[in-house]
Amino acid sequence: MTEKFSQVARRSFLSRIGIAAAALGAGVAPSVPTAAAQTNGFQPRRHTADAWMDAPQASHRIVIDSSSADNGGSALLFAANTLIANKTGYNLDPSDIAIIVVFRHDSTAFGYSDAIWGKYGEIISDLTDFTDPKTDTVPSTNLYNTNGYDSLPNSGITIDMLARQGVQFAICNMATQYLAEAIAEKRKGDPGAIYRELIANRIPNSHLAAAGVLAVNRAQEYGYTLLTAL
Length: 230
Fold this sequence. Notes:
Layout: H1 3-9, H2 17-24, E1 60-66, H3 69-90, E2 97-103, H4 114-128, H5 159-164, E3 168-172, H6 173-187, H7 191-199, E4 206-209, H8 212-221, E5 225-228
Parallel strand pairs: 1-2, 1-5, 2-3, 3-4
Helix pairs in contact: 1-6, 6-7
């Protein structure tokens, strides 16, 4: 998130990290052979928290990383282009392509629903320097899941459109914790309660990842190729 956000949120984050660990409930499974084991016999350890990334029916796998408000939108456009190009160039259906879009750092808030943006949009806008381009004011909905915003970096491609085609989303839990702390600071609320409210209002086909950077790493260990949204 922004420097301003980090200074506000990090003060009490470590004292509350247990909340995140409990919510994730990450288990560990034994190491198993994988296509990612390419050198020196390396085999990534498998964890049950990452099992959702495995898509045996898919012919191709790609993870798209985003870390700012603008490239969060670009990541959606890239995902749509990937599906279109695979259809027109290879006659492959969406079910043949496994795509994960990672929302982390300053794109994390786009992993949450209109209910969150309607309630906390002013705070999110301030933290991410993201405003409604039509009104130059605070967004009251998740604009990357709102029709009629073709001028944004997603070019009108919405989260729901992609979710209906099987695209999955990884939301950074660490940044979510920071966001909860920042909201609590502004609203004089309980960070734990706000954190639980956030994760209860995730976008469709989304998964809470321990950290966005780990989602990027683990996806590659599951054979996903990396595309970074700019």
